[in-house]
Amino acid sequence: MSVTSAGADARHSSWGTGVGRLFAGTALLTAVALLPWLSGNDPALTVLRARSADQDPTPAQMATVREQLGLDEGPFSHLVGWLGGLPRGDAGTSWVSGEPVLPQVTTAFAVSVTLMLGALLVTVAVAALVCTRTLYLGARRRLRRARAGTAAAVLAALPKFLLASLLATVCGVWLGWFPSSGWQGPASMVLPALALGVPSGAMIGGLLDQSLPAAFNEPWARTWHAHGFAPNHVARHALRRALAGVLPQLLPTVVALVGGAVAVEKIFNIPGLGRLALDAAIAQDLPPLQTATLALILLGVAAGLLIQALRRALLGPALRDRALPTLHAPTLARGRSTRWAAGACAIALIALIIAGLLRDPLHVDTAARLLPPSAAHPLGTDSLGRDLLARLGHGALRTVGVALAVTAVCTLTGLLLGMAAQVGAGLTEVVSTMPAVLAGLLTTAVTGPSVWGAALAVCLVGWTPYAAQSAALLEQERASGHMLASISFGAGPGYLLRHHLLPAVLPAVLRNALLRLPTTVLVLASLGFLGLGEQPPTAEWGRLLSENQPYAELAPWTVLGPAFALVLLSVLAVSGTASGRSLLRRAADR
């Protein structure tokens, strides 16, 4: 391929990506502008109640508010007026407080970005620790056994709000090492950064750890080792090669650390952008919600451009010249400990579910509130005296079933949009900026609160990690030499898809989906906790965590049972990727 044609393809790709950004940004801002009218509630009533919770508004007061806010003019008039004021630095005034919006959003954005940078440092540190063993052994040609990634799966399955509560209680209140509330200086950033960064770092590190063996299996690595290159030099270049495929996962991670950290911000009382957007959405305070959404969109686009530039710098001219070697994972032996761990997790989960199904999950006994584990109640009781083992067992099928369905839809959608890289990249950058809570508010405004409304909300935003990963891996595969060789021999699109593109993408995307399965459960739970998803008294694992989180310090057993079940589910899911990869290899060889 000539340099001229490559440049033309790059310009066409940039144009398509720009169209995707513009379309997705416009659609998102329009949907946000319609929120008060989609909800079915009178925006004037909602605003009045947000101003004074005890106020019982009269029709005259309602009419006055409608006139003040111009609600009779409709949503599009408000959107146009708000957009027209942005070039002048005017983002409007809050419908609730009457104060200018831009200073509020600017302050909250600065707080969230500072917290994001701290959480990113923790993410990188944890990811480095997860990959240390593979880097050390691979650089010395001593990598003989594949890792199951159990440790990474356990850390990635930790609920961030539960970890935040634990850190605030132990390190903030009991030991007094760091502030447990407020935003007063660098020390206030430590605990929330740990709560956000540890699970994210485990997820990124687990994906990178699975990509490194293929980088060490490349011919250059074997040649460098034979010529006596320093192991650190080999490890650095292998990390650079594997990091290019994992780096796009930082896009949804970065944005989630800013707009999706609502629970952690509430626990530590941090005045961040996610908390501001959620409060504005609940109060239907449109100007700050629109401005916060625009700030998140701009952040997502900027992060996407930066990550794309870093990827191209890591891959070098080989990507442009279609001379990039393909990463082929070596066949490594798997220890018996992996199979034993998977079997133990499966047995423990089945035992918990069967034992729970034999009990009544709805029986309320106020005299048995918050009882510790005993023979009568093996996992203890909750704040209403209900048996936690019963609720855990009865909620298992619903929890896992909905989470698997949502994960499957998100994975398939992300894979399809990742293949449409020109427009999909712009869509991914913008949609990844939308917190699931905001998507839940938009969907339930139309569908009403239900588990399937919450599932739809997660599907609307949950495909972005898989789209970013698929697009990056497909770009590298299309730039490989053997791909061009197949095309030169007359291979058609179907052959290329079956024998080159899908085998290069599906194993990594499948592992990513399984690593994120517990996260999907927790996102669905957060929507249910806000009244947007699964409604009480239905037993569901994420709802158990959300309902009992206020009692974590007084009665820690109320959250340990569901958290342990999530960890078991995560380890079991990750250990199953080995058989999935082997099946994909067999299908590709046919």
TrEMBL record:
Gene Ontology CC: plasma membrane
Q: Which residues does the UniProt record annotate as the domain ABC transmembrane type-1? A: 392-578
The UniProt entry, under SUPFAM superfamilies, shows: MetI-like
Q: How does it sit in the membrane?
A: Multi-pass membrane protein
Keyword set for this entry?
Cell membrane, Membrane, Transmembrane, Transmembrane helix, Transport
Q: Where in the cell is it found?
A: Cell membrane
Q: Name one GO biological process term.
A: transmembrane transport
Using the UniProt record, give the first listed, main subcellular location.
membrane
Q: InterPro entries of this UniProt entry?
A: BP-dependent_transpt_permease, MetI-like, MetI-like_sf
Transmembrane parts of this sequence: 21-39, 108-131, 152-177, 189-208, 246-268, 288-310, 340-358, 402-425, 437-463, 513-534, 554-576
By its UniProt entry, which PANTHER family does this protein fall under?
D,D-DIPEPTIDE TRANSPORT SYSTEM PERMEASE PROTEIN DDPC-RELATED, OLIGOPEPTIDE TRANSPORT SYSTEM PERMEASE PROTEIN APPC
Write out the similarity annotation. Belongs to the binding-protein-dependent transport system permease family.
The name of this protein is ABC transporter permease subunit
